[in-house]
Recover the amino acids of this structure.
């Protein structure tokens, strides 16, 4: 969705070339900067499955866990793991966790070779105009 939005913005600004890349004087001096809110959904979803060992360890320390039969413990453990993994069973993509990947992918698709930055929270911009160096 971010890539599609970037393309729409570039096209609306009249800067999308015939090769579907950004028209600019020097791609090495053109940056892609993205502000994201709280991380991406895939990254958040994948984070849950990595908590499984810690949650299971804490559950094993409770009296309620000790009162379960071995079959019940196995059922609870399997259900917890299945629900924490959601639709990402055994799926460990780097692209869901790396925060800067959104800006990097936009840069690659648009032919930009300058810095790529993704912020995790809204950025307060200075009140004076920003001038590129």
């Amino acid at each position: 969705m971010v890539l599609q939005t970037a393309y729409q913005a570039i096209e609306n600004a009249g800067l999308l070339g015939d090769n579907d890349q950004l028209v600019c004087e020097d791609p090495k001096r053109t940056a892609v900067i993205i502000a994201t809110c709280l991380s991406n959904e895939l990254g958040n979803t994948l984070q849950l499955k990595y908590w499984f060992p810690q949650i299971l360890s804490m559950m094993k320390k409770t009296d309620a866990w000790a009162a379960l039969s071995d079959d019940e413990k196995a059922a609870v453990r399997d259900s917890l793991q299945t629900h924490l993994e959601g639709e990402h069973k055994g799926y460990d993509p780097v692209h869901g966790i790396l925060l800067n990947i959104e800006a990097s992918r936009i840069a690659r698709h648009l032919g930009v070779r300058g810095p790529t930055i993704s912020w995790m929270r809204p950025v307060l911009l200075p009140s004076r105009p920003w001038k590129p160096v």
